[in-house]
Amino acid sequence: MVAQNRTIHAIIIGDLILDKYIWGNAHKLSPEAPVPVVRVEKESFNLGGACNVANNLIAMNAKATIYGVVGNDMEGSLLHDFLLNKGIESHCYKSNRPTTTKTRIMSSKHQMLRIDKESTGNLEHEIYEEMFDSIQSNITKYHCMILSDYLKGVLSGGFTQKLIKLALSFDIPVLCDPKGNDYSKYKNATLLTPNKKEAMEATHITIHNDKTLHDALNKLQKTYHVRYPLITLSEDGIGYLDNGIFHKKPTIAKEVYDVSGAGDTVIAALALQLAQRKTLDDATAFANAAAAVVIGKIGSATATLDEIEEVLKSHPLVHDIESKIIVDIDDIDKIIKNKKVVFTNGCFDILHYGHVKYLEEARKLGDILIVGLNSDSSVQRLKGDFRPINPQQDRAFILAGLTCVDYIILFEDDTPENLIAQIRPNVLVKGGDYADKKVIGSEYAQSVKLIDFIDDKSTTNIIKKIQQQNAQ
């Protein structure tokens, strides 16, 4: 099982939602309108919204206390009973509004229609006061706070800011699942987790590549003073900033049946890991694995620690590889601070034994090894129209899989001189064939070290051998 150092007690404040599912089959169209007729076979209920966050934490062996509102109706009573049966300590305040209920019509595992019953206005002033007084009196019990906002009125701007200030005063991390266009009410939170669409609406930046993703994360951080801005990218994984450095983790889901509730699972997993004082890199890998579990299920599902461990076992590189590939060279100053930096470069087109031994020897010369990797266009200019054999993203990913390589930076120029000038490494490493040659960029390094290549081990020789075998 995934190791936990202690039992985490999380407090979740937000919009309580009851998810209702009507299951059936649709075999004909209505004679009244061009719509399918669903013959109902069964009905079921799930915890939604902030309740689903709490439910995910329980599934991950944490303790959960939830605060929110319900209506004086059957759905409110049902929701309260569900929470108790799940072992979630609930503080459900009665409000003059209906319990938020989302009814989904399902046929053959596909959602055909959703019907929402809700009220989205702010709560009565007395409820805000009662909730805050109760939370404040129990705050020392909790290891993390999650604000689960579905814009149903619970997390008003003033109330949200009071909660964030309270939690931070006790060194409790605050994670916010935001909604709307104005994120000012989440200012100073520890972590913010919008999805791609929500982040574009909030930042007014169209996210279509890694650069625009980085720009959006920077804007979230600078505008709202969030320690860890994070954007979930559906099938493209998770992007985030950690100490100002951009990271992107790929998704690891194989089959997608239903993405509803996946965001709840992600924020629950992140909260659990940060409360355990894990690194954000470990936390996002754990959250990615949890998301992979739940989107392979129908409805607002949960992921257990055993299920998450199984995913992580089958994807052992998910923690490391993508985070080693530096997208923005401006991050380099933060990466190399107070470290003895070793730099080398090359095309590394078909990675072979000689490459690995060379890189292993280079890594021994300092604290971190940074590899400058020629882009596809750069390789083509240097090696000819039929190179590279492997595209740059493949080459970068394979290099990043080596434990001796700490970071990879792609460069477009014919030489890495500009890159070396910016990094100014302690040790610049080149192959032994440079013994009587000027090493480009040597004036920017403290020292130059030549490492002999292994005889007869080269990409060119591998390509020639393949060509000879094909010719026979």
From TrEMBL:
The active site is at D264. Keywords: ATP-binding, Carbohydrate metabolism, Kinase, Multifunctional enzyme, Nucleotide-binding, Nucleotidyltransferase, Transferase. GO terms for molecular function: ATP binding; heptose 7-phosphate kinase activity; heptose-1-phosphate adenylyltransferase activity; phosphotransferase activity, alcohol group as acceptor. It catalyses: D-glycero-beta-D-manno-heptose 7-phosphate + ATP = D-glycero-beta-D-manno-heptose 1,7-bisphosphate + ADP + H(+); D-glycero-beta-D-manno-heptose 1-phosphate + ATP + H(+) = ADP-D-glycero-beta-D-manno-heptose + diphosphate. Residues 1-319 are annotated as: Ribokinase. Residues 14-303 form the Carbohydrate kinase PfkB domain. It is an enzyme of class 2 (transferase). Its EC number is 2.7.1.167, 2.7.7.70. In the N-terminal section; belongs to the carbohydrate kinase PfkB family. Homodimer. This is Bifunctional protein HldE. It comes from Helicobacter didelphidarum. The gene is hldE.
